[in-house]
Amino acid sequence: xxxxxxxxxxxxxxxxxxxxxxxxxxxxxxxxxxxxxxxxxxxxxxxxxxxxxxxxxxxxxxxxxxxxxxxxxxxxxxxxxxxxxxxxxxxxxxxxxxxxxxxxxxxxxx
Amino acid sequence: xxxxxxxxxxxxxxxxxxxxxxxxxxxxxxxxxxxxxxxxxxxxxxxxxxxxxxxxxxxxxxxxxxxxxxxxxxxxxxxxxxxxxxxxxxxxxxxxxxxxxxxxxxxxxxxxxxxxxxxxxxxxxxxxxxxxxxxxxxxxxxxxxxxxxxxxxxxxxxxxxxxxxxxxxxxxxxxxxx
Lengths: 110, 178
What we know:
The complex is a heterodimer of chains A (110) and B (178). Chain A is mostly helical and 110 residues long.
């Protein structure tokens, strides 16, 4: 991957993320905060962005969104690194991961 | 002015009641969460659901939430609910509706059937408020789970880190998972 390609892809990812975030926030702010894992203040800022501002923000060399798994435990569950046992199958592992992610956020929420 | 306000308020109440009925809430939930009269709720129920509401008492025991599979579902729902209540200035009943939608979505993406009904979810929130149930962090994974109020936090291990021997062997649990 050349660096131009890389920058173009980062820009595209940023743009997709911002547009999705705006849609989610406009549709239902409370649920969007949960889905995006951002604060109400950030959500308000993102909601107000004009298309021109979105374009400007997106053309950065850094990605605007980041992984929210938080720690190894969640990563292992999400990537199914744990050994499957009689009772613990794939869907329970995924549920475990979502409980962990949602409780991290319920814990640290401001 | 006053009448205008109350009509708007009433329309909001009706909207809420309709979403609750569509989610399958029992009449008792509607009676407690809206200011609409019993007669109007009954008519609304028949109009939206196309049938008379189920009769009888609501399940009132906290035990159900502590059995293995329901506990996982209840914990997921309660975490979402707490998150919504902490991040947004929502009225509890709106948070309940939104959290239940998110919960159902999450369960369906995992290819499972929702175990928690809206009525159960509402009971759960009530039990939490009255401190008949509590959230306790698991000492292994750190996730928050629905437990009895005085669970020992130092030794508590959740049902997902250490599933009980016969977990997932019941009739409901052995239903095929895609």
